[in-house]
Design a protein that fits this description.
Helix content is about 25%, strand content about 35%. Strands 1, 2, 3, 4, 5, 6, 7 and 8 form an eight-stranded mixed sheet that branches. The protein has helices spanning about 1-25, 80, 90; strands at about 25-30, 40-50, 60-65, 75, 95-100, 105, 110-115, 120-125. The protein has three helices and eight strands, in the order H-E-E-E-E-H-H-E-E-E-E.
């Protein structure tokens, strides 16, 4: 009986995130501005990436589809989470990615998602 409960718990732990992600809408970077405050998956090409090592909070900014300063969507990784991603500005630059999380407004109204874990960003083939 104990093995049955353990197996069931493991199945639920792995299945629930997949089910939740499957229900999350997929948007383009351009569509994200119409979905502020929503949790979604936004997909696009990382057109520019920059580690602002002298800025407060040590953010890494990655712009989807349009490079800085014409960015239409940004991914933000704060310095406290940066080590989890290795060197994100090299890893993800010029790659097609999908990023999941709550879409919020950043730097002058530009939509974006702050990511805290590598599980929130997937490189697309």
């Amino acid at each position: 009986m104990r093995n049955y409960r353990t197996a069931l718990l493991l199945i639920l732990c792995f299945a629930l995130p997949c089910i939740a992600q499957a229900q999350t809408p997929h948007l383009t970077a351009a569509e994200a501005k119409n979905h502020l405050g929503e949790t979604a998956t936004v997909c696009g090409r990382v057109a520019s990436a920059h580690f602002a090592e002298k800025a407060k909070g040590l953010p890494t900014f990655m712009s989807l589809d349009m490079p800085y300063p014409q960015q239409i969507f940004i991914i933000v990784i704060w310095g406290t989470d940066r080590l989890k991603f290795g060197n994100p500005e090299r890893t993800y630059r010029n790659r097609n990615v999908c990023v999941s999380g709550k879409i919020t407004s950043h730097r002058g109204g530009i939509p974006g998602i702050v990511i805290n874990t590598p599980a929130q960003i997937q490189i697309q083939k």
